[in-house]
Amino acid sequence: MGVRLMVVDDHRLLAEALASALKLRGHRVLAAAAPAAGAAELVITRAPEVCLLGTATPAEPGIFDPVVKIKRERPQVAVLVLGPVPSPRGIAAAFAAGASGYVRHDERIEGVERAIMKARAGEAAVAPQLLQGAFSELLNPAAQPDDEGQRLLQMLTPREVEVLVRVADGEDTRLIAAGMGIAPSTARTHVQRVLMKLGVGSRLEAAALAARTGLLDRAGPVNSAPE
Fold this sequence. Notes:
Layout: E1 4-8, H1 12-24, E2 28-29, H2 39-46, E3 50-54, H3 65-73, E4 78-83, H4 88-97, E5 101-104, H5 109-120, E6 125-126, H6 128-139, H7 148-155, H8 158-168, H9 173-180, H10 184-198, H11 203-213, H12 215-219
Parallel strand pairs: 1-2, 1-3, 3-4, 4-5, 5-6
Helix pairs in contact: 2-3, 8-10, 8-11, 9-10
């Protein structure tokens, strides 16, 4: 039996792709995208069985305030946090706020669906490898952890960073070209270079990688200027 769901993430491309995949598996998806600021109000109004709530910065103070508000107003709604590889503090903060589980942005659809079913049943939904990784980090903290997002950001030119942000926002080649004041052929070239540098094969994979590593949040606002 399908689950009545909401997918709430401010990265429209990721939200809509996940929503489409879940619809194909028989679930009823009530919404696919929303800015983080309005997430709680949207979920409270629609009252789904399960909400997938996206975040790119699970360790940031206050990031799970929407979860607290949802659980206060709609305690029957199971909230699954959808985010990058979390730190132990990030996992703890999500559950402390009232989340039913934590799912990685790049989890396979089968894993996302298993987490949804567990959350609806009132069970904690978090992949064993995430818990194992969290415990390992707690027991053996890295002195200087690698910053994958910063490393990837340094590989891209400012124009390529802008293209990546626009790709993550769901813009196609025509919109990218119009927004940046460049020819569609130039926009396609930029997109291909971004995919090549990130080592991915599609725009969706590029957007997921950027969200998982926090690259999009580091990129800052884009500047559009004709070439």
